[in-house]
Write a structure and sequence with these properties.
- There is one protein chain.
- 82% of the residues lie in helices and 0% in strands.
- It is mainly α.
- The chain has one domain (11-94).
- α2 packs parallel to α4.
């Protein structure tokens, strides 16, 4: 049995693994940065809240993304979390 066949037989997917390793920290950082930028509190408190939300979200995503159905769904979750926040941050910076 080849390496690819063994990997597919075990239910592993490179896309899901990459989503957990690359997409999870990027999505968590985007959510944390969005909280820092948009929370109506002092910058110090916003930073604390953003950081303390980012770390558990990163861990939760890193644990949950490999368990999803396929890589497309895993990357879709990352995009669904980080996409709107990234657009809002860019629009805030431009406007």
């Amino acid at each position: 049995m080849t390496v690819v066949a063994e990997s597919k037989a075990a239910g592993h997917s490179l896309a899901r693994t990459l989503a957990a390793l690359l997409g999870a920290p990027l999505a968590a950082f985007a959510v944390g940065a969005g909280l820092v930028a948009f929370l109506p509190v002092s910058p110090e408190v916003a930073y604390l809240i953003g950081f303390h939300v980012m770390v558990p979200l990163w861990v939760a995503l890193a644990c949950a993304l490999p368990l999803l159905r396929n890589g497309r769904v895993a990357w879709g979750v990352c995009l669904a979390l980080s996409g709107p926040v990234a657009v809002a941050l860019v629009l805030r910076r431009l406007g």
